[in-house]
Design brief:
By secondary structure, this protein is α+β, with helices and mostly antiparallel strands. Helix content is 26%, strand content 52%. It has three helices and seven strands. The protein has a seven-stranded antiparallel sheet with strand order 1-7-6-5-4-3-2, with helices on one face.
């Protein structure tokens, strides 16, 4: 499934980039995040609890920052597994100035398998988009002093 969105920040691009690269900020904004720890250069070990319809699951895995072109773009690779199944995904993130604001464009591809996949693509897509919106809303709140 593919998900894309753009988010506007009332902050300069360098401030937005710094937030996107700060593990403590990311951990505080990822919905259900229980662990977000460095596991090498631009690689993190994560644990997230996600509730979707009647299925709640804890997923553990890795997040890697790839193809970084500071301060304009990077790619994320995510792998996670839990009792309810697995989640693999990648996303392209682009940071661009627009007048006095900064726009962050996100395009993501997510693959889900196991029990959670039986909920259906429409429900999973809506939940994934909602989580992405929650993450960026939190990040937007941290961008303005």
């Amino acid at each position: 499934m593919d998900i894309s969105a753009s988010y506007t920040f009332n902050a300069p691009p360098d401030r937005v980039w710094a937030l996107l690269m700060d593990p403590a900020v990311l951990a505080s904004c990822v919905p259900g995040c229980e662990k977000f720890e460095p596991a090498g250069e631009d690689r993190y070990s994560v644990a997230v609890t996600v509730g979707l319809a009647a299925i709640t699951g804890k997923y553990t895995g890795t997040v890697a920052v790839l193809d970084k072109i500071e301060p304009t773009s990077y790619r994320l690779a995510v792998e996670g597994q839990g009792r309810a199944g697995f989640v693999n995904g990648s996303s392209a993130i682009a940071v661009r100035p627009e007048n006095a604001a900064t726009i962050v464009d996100v395009t993501a591809t997510v693959q889900i398998g196991g029990t959670i996949a039986r909920l259906g693509q429409r429900l999973i897509g809506a939940a994934a988009k909602m989580m992405m919106d929650q993450f960026f809303s939190c990040l937007q709140s941290k961008a303005t002093p």
